[in-house]
Amino acid sequence: MADLHLKLLSSDAEGAHSHVMVTKLNAGFAAFVWIWNNRQGQPTPQLHLLIARWLAERWEKGDRELLLLAFRSSGKSTLVGLFCAWLLFQNPDLRILVLAGDFALAKKMVRNVKRIIERHPLTKRLKPQRADQWASDQFTVRRSAELRDPSMLAKGVAANITGLRADVVICDDVEVPNTCDTAPKRMDLRSRLHELDYVLVPGGTQLFVGTPHTYYSIYADTARAELGETQAQLAGFQRMELPLLDSLGRSRWPERFSAQRIEAIRQRAGPAKFESQMLLRPRNIVEGRLDPDRLRSYGDELVYTEGNNEATLSLAGRRLVSASCWWDPSYGAPGPVTPVLLQRCSPMPRAATGCKASAISNTIRRAWRR
User: Fold this and answer.
1) Stretch 308-322: mean pLDDT, rounded?
2) pLDDT averaged over every residue in the chain
3) CATH number corresponding to 44-242
4) Are 21 and 10 in contact (CB under 8 A)?
5) How far is CA 80 from CA 56, 221, 322, 336, in A?
6) Going by DSSP bridges, is the β-strand pair 200-210/65-70 parallel, antiparallel, or unpaired?
7) What is the b/e burial string over 59-95, where b = at least 16 CB atoms within 10 angstroms of the residue's CB?
8) Residue 182 and residue 214: Cα distance in Å, rounded?
9) Which of the two residues, 40 and 353, has the higher pLDDT score?
10) Which band of pLDDT confidence, cut at 50, 70 and 90, is reported for residue 327?
11) Where in the chain is the domain with CATH 3.40.50.300?
């Protein structure tokens, strides 16, 4: 193959520009990505070049257990799709299995890789002539080896993978809320991932790509003693972790995530979800139940009124959205009964709050009469 000379424009931390000459496309995943983005009329951000170089370096050095953690909307799955196309460009005889949290997500990656192969100038020759080898959930490129398994196959993590063989297994977002939001689901996910040992051929590659959704994440870098672990699920894997903010608090993708947008995401998501999904620091559920520092005490009296067939609660002149009350269950005890009240204040319209106030009005009225 004739060498093709490309000029990549990159920026350093100070904003100065430097030029990198790529002379051998056959060995450059970063160049492969750049060509694709250029054909799509898209820039190639430094974040993506960083990930591309890491993936290529790990592959060329023979590291076969890899973990890529990056913040939500970082484009990591798109890059991994390009990586799969590049691997097939390097070796069309490879068999790649994509596992995801559900089949639709895995199929989405396979379909994306198909389109890359069809349109990338370096991979067009890989498209087969037979249409039955070019399905949306699996395909087989032109290759010299006669193999039972396709070049790329999509499966949901809950699917039966017995009997499959793969040189590369991509676990793309296998940890999502519907696979990790309860303890039994987390245990089932771990059990299913152990099956990959029987699918992967000797010397094969596992690449996990995702974002932690729970403190008991499969991506955790330390063992979770509460689960009986003696070592982390992915102990020994080469890791690349890219939170949205770097060690100096700067955005890793400032063109897309400005300081204003980051703050807006933080406000909408809340501190716990923002730290988990954007900073890759999931909190222990024990730490997230209640933040005592956010409790406020009020000196004002709770005002309960009824009018127009509607019950209303207010505190310090503000209408309450909801209220929860607890009393000592021994109502027969001598002396007045003092309720403990937790409430949320909000200037919401009456129509949005009246039903909640009405729902507890009878309880409060009976308690005060006691």
Assistant:
1) 85
2) 83
3) 3.40.50.300
4) no
5) 11, 22, 46, 66
6) parallel
7) beeeebbbbbbbbeebbbbbbbbbbbbbbbbeebebb
8) 10
9) 40
10) low
11) 44-242
